[in-house]
Amino acid sequence: YSLYELNDYHVSYASASEEWTKSDMFFFGAARDTTYTANERYAGTKFRFSFAAGTGKIRNFSLYTIENGVKVRVAPDALETASELAQWRTIDAIAALALEKPTGEEKEKGALVYKKGQLVVYGMSYTDYENDPSKAEFWRYTHTPFNDGEHEDAAVIMSRRGEVLRVSDKVLPAKIDRFYIDGKYVVEHWQRDDTDRESAGNGAVNYEDFNKYSNTETITFYIEGGGEAPWVTGVKTNPDPVKEGGGYRLEIGVDDLEKDDLTVRVEVYHEGKKVYEYLEENVKADESGNYPPVITGNAPNAKVGDYTVVVTVWDEDGTGLGDHGFTVVSEGRIKGAVDHTDQWEKNRKSYNTKLFGDAYNALSVFGTYKAQAAPRKRGTNVFWSGEKFMLEAAVRGDAVKVTCVISGYPGYSSVMTNTGRKNADGDAIYEGSIWNGDMINKWGRDAPVELVFAFTALYDGGVTKTDEATVIADTYEDYWQLHRYY
């Protein structure tokens, strides 16, 4: 494309007839000549420029003032959407927007904030336990408009304060990939399976009666806007960094050209799910035109994973959007447990059923258990010395090594193995076992004893996390005599 030198440009502001001239301006022309403005901003300022005759392109356009050495954008977006272009009036010219797909524009699954026209990554997939294909899919959109009005395909329209304004029965048969109207979007998606796999619709059976609807998945994302709206100057956490299991607050900076009273909403998402929301109204600028920071209440204690903070700030003229991401890294944790083998668990239940009439699937308290006369009802944590101790540990973070040892008996230990499975909290599951032939008569022959299993996770840098699990060893009768009961 051709780069045109500006023929003429000047700035005027509504409060006076006086104009700034080239000698007052900050501008880069084709020849890279530079002049500077005064260090001030004016409400109602207008900017006008012209090109030589011909056809040309404006790319990466940005208009700003400099306040205390910091750029303050007047046109916050680089002419990326038609709505932004419409704010400029042309004289003896025709202006059009040519959308160009930038390299690397696509975001990863889990992104929450997109630019207008950017491909939205939904990250949803369909499966069926009978491997039925999908017959139909359904997409229902809820839209909270910011600056560009309502999206015509939204079934629900919300106010910025969260009230339902309008509801329709509009459900789409396919998703919308790109959005050119800003705001907050909540998408509900479900599908219906197709059980007519064999007859190929020959009419012998009405399979519609068997086609079932799936569960409904919901995701939230935001489309950035522009226009004459307040904006977010910064988002930070306190403390920084946020630690696993710790509380935190958000500190939000906002600004507005007209210095109107502002409303600020803060939404915190963990792995794409909203976990906290805060609203503050009537945020006022001081006499110097500065807004105080908006400080939220205490957010829920942090979990390991990725967080996104989305801030919307609005006045009567428009809505601004800002986002901030942070990651909570695990400092390590281990939670250990000791269990029976499947066969020894059957033996325990058979023993209890034979002597006491029920399997008794509860824990035994050591002091209470020991005080009972033999034979005793054996809880799930009571072992014979002849058993193999089955070990399991839920380990958080990237452990270098996981071990378990019976406290006081260093010869009875295990280096545990990562199974590759994870629990609901995302912790890695490690397994191991402890058994030796000389354990058969080791504990609990004269009286029940308590054994402590010490679990240790070792991390890089020598950091260790520990946990303990206790069991009761009771060998009132030799293990080989137990056949009398089962």
**Content of β-strand:** 35-45%
How would you write the strand order of the largest sheet? 6-11-10-7-8-9
What characterizes the major β-sheet?
Answer: 6 strands, mixed
**Rg for CA atoms:** 34 Å
Tally of helical runs: 3
Gap between N and C termini, in Å? 89 Å
User: How much helical structure, as a percent, in the residues?
Assistant: under 10%
Structural class: mainly beta
Description of the structure:
With about 475 residues, the chain is mainly beta. It is about 5% helix and about 40% strand. It has helices at about 80-85, 340-355, 365-370, and strands at about 5-15, 20, 45-50, 65, 70-75, 115, 135-145, 155-160, 165, 185-195, 215-225, 230-240, 250-255, 260-270, 275-285, 295, 305-315, 320-330, 335-340, 380-385, 390-395, 400-405, 410-415, 415-420, 430-435, 450-460, 465-475. The strands form seven sheets. It has a six-stranded mixed beta sheet with strand order 6-11-10-7-8-9, with no helix packed on it. It has a five-stranded mixed beta sheet with strand order 20-27-26-22-23, with no helix packed on it. The chain is elongated, with a radius of gyration of 34 Å. The relative contact order is 0.08. Mean pLDDT is about 80; it is low at about 1-5, about 10-45 and about 100-105.
Q: What is the fold's blueprint, element by element?
A:
Layout: E1 6-13, E2 19-20, E3 45-51, E4 63-67, E5 70-75, H1 82-85, E6 113-114, E7 134-145, E8 156-158, E9 164-167, E10 183-193, E11 217-223, E12 231-238, E13 249-255, E14 262-270, E15 273-283, E16 294-295, E17 305-314, E18 319-328, E19 333-339, H2 342-356, H3 366-371, E20 382-383, E21 389-396, E22 401-406, E23 409-415, E24 417-422, E25 428-434, E26 449-458, E27 464-473
Parallel strand pairs: 6-11, 7-8, 20-27
Antiparallel strand pairs: 1-2, 1-3, 4-5, 7-10, 8-9, 10-11, 12-13, 13-16, 14-15, 14-17, 17-18, 19-21, 21-25, 22-23, 22-26, 24-25, 26-27
